[in-house]
Design goal:
This protein is 2% helix and 39% strand. By secondary structure, the protein is mainly beta. It has one domain (5-379): TolB, C-terminal domain (Neuraminidase), CATH 2.120.10.30. Strand 18 and strand 19 form a beta hairpin. It starts with a helix and ends with a strand.
Amino acid sequence: MQSSLSHILKASAAVVGLCCLAVLGTGTAAPAAEGPAKYKYDPDWPKPLPNHWILGGITGLFVDKEDHIWVLNRPRDLKVDEVAKGEAECCSAAPAVLEFDTAGNLLKAWGKPDMVPGWPSSEHTIFTDNEGNVYIAGAQPGDTILKFTADGKFVKDFGHRGPKVPRGQMQKEDNQQTDLLLRGVAAATLDEAAGEIYIADGYLNKRVMVYDWNTGAFKRGWGAYGKPLSEISNDGQPDVGKDGDPPAKDFKSPVHAVRISKDGLVYVGDRSGNRIQVFTTQGKFLKEFFIRRNTRVRGTAGSVDFSPDPQQKYIFVADIANATVWELDRQTGQVVQRIGHPGREGGAFVLLHVAFMDSKGNLYTGEVGETSRVQKFSPVN
């Protein structure tokens, strides 16, 4: 959280990413002759925001079918007393939802806490459907998924809200409950052809849940390694484990990402478990990739997205702990490149929360914490 106007203004500035080769665990990887593109920071994206708006933490980011970039930030991250008094031109929190084009122009901006009943107490994820509707969800007990038009008109809730818990009290895990009682959504993705939504139920519980998108009926769910819901422990979080240790049998909170590839595989980001696990859409475990496995704080597998080529040869993973985007070979999990490094200057990240690709191979990222910024990296070959 910023403590001065200068820090706040930095939060809305775009920053850069620096490309170099990376090491994953103990193995090194080098791009092949026809390997991935290098990436160059775009200092002109986004354009300056109007009305002296500044951004809270960027918790959600999504690129729709028109290559419009939807950004979800947390206005409540910014406090009135953090804005310097006596300035001729002051600042205000930006709306929660912002839509940009690939040139960095702001197309739409709307949304604020309590604008509709059930607005998330902690905004966390955003996505759209093929009809252009926008969905946001939160990560706290009592938060559900809300559907809006692209202009911000409320349409409906998806799911009913779980009980709110008094501050300072812990809500108990219940990995066996299957009613659409949402207690915080870390991430969600739509399979519109199948009429299903996949939810990373990863802040309270440690599982993936699938519901009928039209009726809300429970379809299926699973834990790490495809474990049935009935076998997932409700006794807290497993140890992360280090190189050479047996992998944890359960996901570790937060289960932070879920995405479906074009060939119908489900990629789940077990952020604090420092791994991505891959499943069929029916929950059969196929393989896992560890990312900087010895990382002990915050975790490394924060978001997952795919390169835009037809085979989706590469996956891009936002690593909050090591402040970088890892580019991995989708088949082997081998790192082929890292984009960015820790820091506030150009070519750096502080707390990198999410990273997404557009259809042209541009990479967009969002950070939380002090910097709270969005940035764009474009391929150069």
